[in-house]
Amino acid sequence: MSVNEIEDGPGFADLALGPELLKALSGLGYEEPTPIQREAIPPLLEGRDLLGQAATGTGKTAAFALPMLQRLHGVLRAAGGEEGGEPGGLVLVPTRELAVQVSEAMHRYGRDLGTRVLPIYGGQPIGRQLRALERGVDVVVATPGRALDHIGRGTLPLKGLRMVVLDEADEMLDMGFAEDIEAILQDIPEERQTVLFSATMPPRIDGIARRHLREPVRIRIEREAPAAGEAPLIRQSAYIVSRAYKPAALGRVLDVEAPTAAIVFCRTREEVDQLTETMNGRGYRAEALHGGMGQEQRDRVMGRLRSGTADLLMATDVAARGLDIEQLTHVINYDVPSAPESYVHRIGRVGRAGREGVAITLAEPREHRMLKTIERVTRSRITVEKVPTVADLRARRLELTRAALQESLMEDGDLDRFRVVVETLADEFDLVDIALAAVKLAHESTGAAADEEEIPEVTPRAPRPERGPREGRDDRYGRDDRRGRRGGGPMSRVFVGAGRSAGVRPQDIVGAITGETRVTGREIGAIEIADRFTLVEIPDAAVDEVVEALRHTTIKGKRPTVRRDRDGAPRGRR
Ligand code: AMP
Predict the structure, then answer these.
(1) Maximum Cα–Cα distance across the chain
(2) From the record, which residues define motif Q motif (predicted)?
(3) pLDDT confidence band for 573 (50 / 70 / 90)
(4) Average pLDDT, the chain
(5) What is the whole-number distance in angstroms between the Cα of residue 516 and the centre of ligand 1?
(6) Please, is 256 exposed, middle or buried when counting C-beta atoms within 10 Å of its C-beta (0-12, 13-18, 19+)?
(7) Which terminus of the chain has fewer Cβ atoms in its 10 Å neighbourhood, N or C?
(8) Eight-state DSSP code of residue 266
(9) Which of the pair, 568 or 138, is modelled with greater confidence?
(10) Ligand 1 neighbour 57 (Cβ under 6 A)
(11) What angle do CA 200, 109, 113 make, to 5 degrees?
């Protein structure tokens, strides 16, 4: 697909989605479908099976969720919208985190349709799931192990299923769910629609597709690389940061890079608005630009950028189309773009006319795979760099002060009027000390506020280890040793100042940790919940990251004290 086709491609309204879904999408600030959505939604709405190769970050969840919601809703309406019915849709996912994420997304998209979506996964008390299933749900999003448990108990009826999605199928196989998936698919009525998404297509995935999909439409989001010579002169780098630290990381990167003008790309209008507010609050001069703004407003924003009153432009892809900003030195992707084409398109805004430009991407650990895909497709190298530390930042600011002083010494003929100050002080103080005090004042007057927040370093998420089919399954909190935790390094305890009396449950702790850091559920050790506090075992190497991240997260609506447990010296795995 060429860049032009992306620009002129169909919008959500052209994809035959119903008004309730369109409303939800516009409410979420999605301005246009991503490439995978554009290609997958029409055939799925027609009822075709589909085999899609796409990584996280491409928008694949909405690509299957929107057609599923629309088709199930059509069936329900035809049946008179009866309550308490059996599920019509089943989504199988590899992890608890993904189950929660997908069902939240489906719930948001399907709000106006009244679709009832239930995540079920190991680790959550089964009683609650049983009650919810009994009341009736339309879509179940489940990990294969727990889904099979329910099927065995007769609590997850399969005969009403019309659409089944295998999401991140390669991950499910890596986690040893192959047999479970086969068992589940075998029991579902044949006239169902089946969708399989996978980031990679090893032969085993092909095998599942051949056995269980009927004449599937095949979609791959990777495309031809841009022609040689098309790539402009751009330094490309990426920082891996967890979500909680993204605004801080953006600020840090801006401080160190000191762009003349930068454009920061976000996925949605809401993100544009929020980030603009956050960055202005942090003392940057940012302006928002998105599709919801009128021409006059846009012109005003552009005027401020051109005149230098603002130096940061926060924009969605759609809003930034056709913009040509002479002063632009930096393009920053606040998220990894959903397709390599849009990456190419975005970074093409700098490095024009032979000038050098900089493209920086902030990626979450889980988005690392998409970054690799972009590198492969664009045949360019994106260097993953360490987020500048507080010390780096201080050094950089001192360097700026030094450069300013040097400039003043070389160019300013007007220094003599300060001589009297130096000479009178020299009677009492050493000349170097006087200079030092003057540098301090100059440095502080640049507004170099102390930014003391250290941003934890995270590395890309490593691929999951192979496990035997039944081993450990997805029962993330069953703290037995079958789970095959990764590594075997020492564990340390983290103290969290909230416990049973605050309603803390193991899943809250696990959810907070896996959601904000690169620690996986399997790596978390024993969780002891006392009345007023909780102790959780974490691989020693990850303790600092976990402590930092939890300090910025709420647990049960509160921000409890979090620290390394005092007698939490590394201990061997039990
Ligand atoms: P996924 O690849 O499904 O994990 O989606 C990645 C992220 O992109 C999620 O945060 C979605 O909310 C967001 N997203 C999906 N589709 C769109 C769209 N058309 N426009 C903007 N954001 C989207």
Answers:
(1) 96
(2) 10-38
(3) very low
(4) 82
(5) 18
(6) middle
(7) C
(8) -
(9) 138
(10) yes
(11) 130
State how far the Cα of 165 lies from the Cα of 181, in Å rounded to an integer.
11
Ligand 1 pocket: which of 268, 333, 334, 373 to mutate (most atoms within 8 A of CB): 268
Among the listed ranges 121-135, 423-437, 439-453, 515-529, which one has the minimum average pLDDT value?
439-453
Show the DSSP H helices in 412-496 as ranges: 419-426, 431-445
Name which residue sits closest to atom 8 of ligand 1, judged by CA: 59
Model confidence pLDDT, tens digit, residues 526-559: 788 777 888 888 888 888 888 888 887 777 777 8
Number of H helices, E strands in the chain: 21, 18
CA distance 127 to 387: 44
Cβ density class 450-472: b for 16+ within 10 Å, e for less:
ebeeebbebebbeebeebeeeeb
Bridge partner residues of 491 (DSSP): 539, 571
Tell which CATH classification among 1.25.40.620, 3.40.630.30, 3.40.50.300, 3.30.420.40 matches the domain 234-390: 3.40.50.300
Q: What are phi and psi of 42, to 5 degrees?
A: -60, -50
Burial of 176 (0-12, 13-18, 19+ CB in 10 A): buried
Best residue for ligand 1 mutational test, from 267, 366, 367, 371 (most atoms within 8 Å of Cβ): 267
Least confident of 25-29, 100-104, 326-330, 437-441: 326-330
Q: Is the pTM of this model over 0.70?
A: no
The burial of 406, by beta-carbon neighbours within 10 Å (0-12 exposed, 13-18 middle, 19 or more buried), is given as exposed
Domain map (residue ranges) of the chain? 3-221, 234-390, 474-564
C-beta separation of 243 from 271 below 8 A: no
Domain 474-564 superfamily per CATH = RRM (RNA recognition motif) domain (3.30.70.330)
